[in-house]
Amino acid sequence: MTPNATDVGIPATSRRTFLSSTAVAAVAVAGGMPLLAACGGTENKKNEGTTSGKDAQKILPTFAARAVVTPDIPSENGSAAGFTTAIATAQLQTSVAAKKGKGSELTAMAPFWGPPPAPDNAYYKAMNEAIGVKVTWQNQDGNTYADKLGAVLAGSAIPDLVVVPGWNLNGKIPGAINAKFEDLGPYLSGDKVKAYPNLAAIPTDAWQRSIFGGRLRGLPMPASYVTNIAPFYRADLFEAKGWQPPKSADEFMALAKEITDAKAKVWACDDMRWTAYNMFGVFNGGDKALGWNLVDGKLIHRFETQEYLESLEWVRKLYEAGVVHPDARADNQGDAGDRFTSGQILIYNNDVSHWYQKTVEQAGQNPDFAMAAMDIPGHDGRPPTLWATNPANIWAFVKKGTPKAVIEDILAAADFTSAPYGTKERMLTEYGVEGTHYTIKDGLPTKTDAGNNQVANAWGFMASPASYIAHPDQPEVTKAMIEWQQRMGALTKKSSFYGLTITEPNQWTNLSNDFEQLEKDIVRGRKKISDMQQAVSEWRSKGGDELRDWYKKILDTSAPAAG
Questions:
Q1: CB neighbours (10 Å) of residue 54?
Q2: Angle formed by the axes of helices 249-259 and 306-320, to 10°?
Q3: Does the record bear ATP-binding in its keywords (predicted)?
């Protein structure tokens, strides 16, 4: 068994496309009267803020670990667990003792990258049969999912199950989640979750993050809290040239100039903003709440820090020096991963899952190809301070008003899809049916064309087990990925609002929407650092200072539940 658990079928480039388009979701819902009405009024006031501490303890499911297979590399410093050894089909364990579904027919909407399979395909049928439900998937283009999500939540025809990625929690969508989705606490809080053993094994931090509007609404996909953005480099070409990964911002710049040969169409790197934020210790910006942190008794936002400005200035100097690929300067035209594998750039940053994806992709095309992730250097040569990401960032939500029997069938499906590595349920979810969707070659499952076309996205969004990485076909890559997470995890701190889902008041939800475009303009030389300082000043006067006071009240009256 060798499922790719790090990306659950989601191309990392697509995730980052979402993240770099934070204004899209806001535009999709900002003018929708039905959504505004649904999210306004007294009910919305009750749902603002967050739930933590003793209040959360009353809601959270009881954690019950479930070790089916001992990891080859145990989780450490917040890393995923690692599996480098394949498990024979005959040795797979059963984690769901009996078919729990009672035959409910339900609809589910989720993002999908690539051509979606036919609705009645063999994989969907096999999953439905194994669980005891009939799910009709309404797969939507992952690249335009924010638009579809906003439109659906603004209307009344909401599917029984809706997947919402964390990068779509913009504008009025958090309020819509509170207004339009079920409270699952009556089914999962406390010991009630023990009816679903695989859900009970999901880490508490992931469930804490699934509390929206004071209710346990989300079925989570747990994740490692270690930064998922790795600065990759071409290890084969570095070795051939005798280059070493840089250990400071100055070393990076010097190496980048040495690598770049524009006449030969080789540039050192792509846009390095994500790595720069880590190098300079900027608070995590993947979630609005994580952008705030208590420093020396004062709550400050990442926009207000010197580290934020210094990171932008450093990236601007990379562009100014001509070491960044021209397509990156042109607002990231094309694909950075393709530029990397073709040798047009030798360094780029993206989701850590690219390590495996690109290695496998290039195995048959370029046998000499080798990539690695450099340890994130501190800007001054000392180890950086990294900030934890969220322990869950994708959820499935159940439509409000769904009958009890249907909710229980949805939970049965989620219990099935959150089965751990080494089980028959995990194998079916990740690989489909043996002989149809995969065959065993050299002891490893290998997907057929049908498997590649049908077994992707969809079911993996229902819920998933604790974070793990399992690539027995590339054991050295698996080992390297986990060890990189462990080293970076040792440098990682949890900020003041780690693991909390916070619903901001409507008047401030779009306050920072323009900052990402301004960041892009500054590093490309179209705007100046002084423009950012002016934008921060305006942000403060237009509501940033009031928002600070609002977050400070949350901090003063709550504390994260122990996980």
A1: 10
A2: 10
A3: no
